[in-house]
Amino acid sequence: MTTTLVDADGLMYIAGFGVEKTHYQVGYETAEGDWVEAFFGSVREIKDFFAENEGFEEIHRESWVEVGELSHALQIAKAKMSEIRDKFGPKMEVYVRGDDQKNFRDELATIAPYKGNRTSHKPTYYEQIRQYLVDEWGAYKVEDQEVDDEVGCRLSELEALGEDVVIASPDKDLDQFPGRHWSYKANIAYDVEPVEAYHFFYQQALEGDNADNIKGCWKCGAKAASDILAAVVHMDEAEIWQAVVNTYEESMGLNKCPYAGMPAEAVALENAQLVYMRRVRGEIWMPPGVPNLQEVREVSLDD
Asked: Does residue 184 sit in the same domain as residue 85?
């Protein structure tokens, strides 16, 4: 029987924001100098409006959130969980963020604060949805690391036992793990091959992750990172890592590089450790040929 590992972090946001609607009141001046107040249902609507009305100038903006019923949010969560169960079977392990919200990456990040760019609020019913998943679906609370990390650790444990496993998550970070995947947000099933998985990791080590404020290699975007890895695709992993380090070294000569003067390998290592999804609890990634480190403290699950 298939075991489904459910990263329910994204599900809480889908369910929570599914009953929230942000409204905007915008004051603007027309090309003729008239003052007008207007209401919009999204930032996109505002951008489109001003793009279509040349000469209009936004003066001020206010926003407020209209929140629907908690029961509706819980129904969205139930529907998604039921969909996963019906598709892959009843053997499910569900994981949500713990109470502490701390992460070992907070201490690793020196170039930029980990997730220091997060400004959006959690859904109003975040705690209620999480508790529903704990009470009704047996969700585990993950402390000291990402839910993704715990999913990766459990995947390694279950595969070592010869079990068939599928990962249910909309998070691209879990593409570091080869095997079967299901995005419950996009309703898409796909497979990740082993070579695709570790290449995705090195792609992230170069590109960084804007969502988590991991800057990556200065001026090395997705296409550049992909091109660099394509050139070394047939090399062994140690040579791929050296190509990553070399790219960081070259980036230090570019204007306004935030880590200029630091050792290239140290900068590359920090970014790689930040994007790496754990296979073993307490693990800290190290380059090929060097044993991965272990944290002194152990990660715990709140049963």
From this structure: yes
Burial 287-300 (b: 16+ CB within 10 A, else e): beeeeeeeeeeebe
Residues 6 or more apart from 217 whose CB is under 8 A from it? 206, 207, 208, 225, 244, 247, 248, 251, 268, 271
Q: pLDDT tens-digit profile of 204-252? A: 999 999 989 999 999 999 999 999 999 998 889 999 999 999 999 999 9
Q: Give me the residues paired with residue 26 across strands.
A: 38, 61
Total domains in the chain come to 3
Give the integer Cα–Cα distance in Å for 263 and 269. 10
Task: Fill in the DSSP letter of residue 68.
Answer: -
Please give the model's pTM, rounded to 2 decimal places. Answer: 0.89
The SS3 call for residue 74 is helix
What is the domain range of residue 111? Answer: 3-15+70-194
Dist. CA 76–CA 13, nearest whole Å: 10
Do residues 266 and 185 both lie within one domain? Answer: no
Sign of CA dihedral 273, 278, 279, 280: positive
